[in-house]
Amino acid sequence: MAKLLLFNKPYGVLSQFTSADGHPGLADYIDISEVYPAGRLDRDSEGLLLLTDDGALQAQISNPRFKLEKTYLAQVEGELTDSALQCLSQGVTLKDGPTLPAKARRVPEPGIWPRFPAIRERKNIPTTWLELTIREGRNRQVRRMCAHVGFPVLRLVRSQIGSWSVRELAPGEHRQVNVAMPPAKPRSKQARPASQQRRKPRTTEKKRSS
Questions:
Q1: Do 135 and 84 belong together in one domain?
Q2: 8 Å CB contact between 106 and 85
Q3: CA dist., res. 5 & res. 142, Å (int)
Q4: How many domains does the chain contain in total?
Q5: Lower CB density within 10 Å: C or N end of the chain?
Q6: Whole-prediction pTM value?
Q7: Catalytic residue numbers?
Q8: Rounded distance between C-alpha atoms, residue 88 and residue 86, angstroms
Q9: CA-derived radius of gyration, the chain
Q10: pLDDT tens per residue, range 21-49
């Protein structure tokens, strides 16, 4: 049975156990041995980070081939338009290629913990909260997608990965669950039936006499 930790990563904390450049690491919050992050969360992002002691489960969570949904709450600058939501839903083209379609919708300001330090707001520019669900894991993808449609992210919180949620966890807290189900197979590849698999021909070497 795999061990899985649900951790609410605070702003400014690294997704690694060691600290660096004056920023704390996971060891400041988690004292459980033999668990490793399944994926990562940027230093300036907050919310759910999963850690496990099982390599297969770690791959299932972090590898984009498994298409595990990740849901984010993003506070963006400006009044989010319908056309921007439609673009995000259909997918946008970034420098590293087009993104997959996403689930995007406006949401009321969520009742979550305050960020420290607080975001810098401009009095004459409103902000909007957006819920965005993606199935990829590109570097700073949500921030880049929102900037691409003209709405830079001021605050980013990952609220859910698959069926695991950050609800009821305060920043810096973690909760352990046990996962009994076997890891799923990647959706992009299917194993061939044994009758259709190619077998390498056997090769034999004759012993040479000296």
A1: yes
A2: yes
A3: 24
A4: 2
A5: C
A6: 0.84
A7: 42
A8: 5
A9: 22
A10: 999 999 999 999 899 999 999 999 999 99
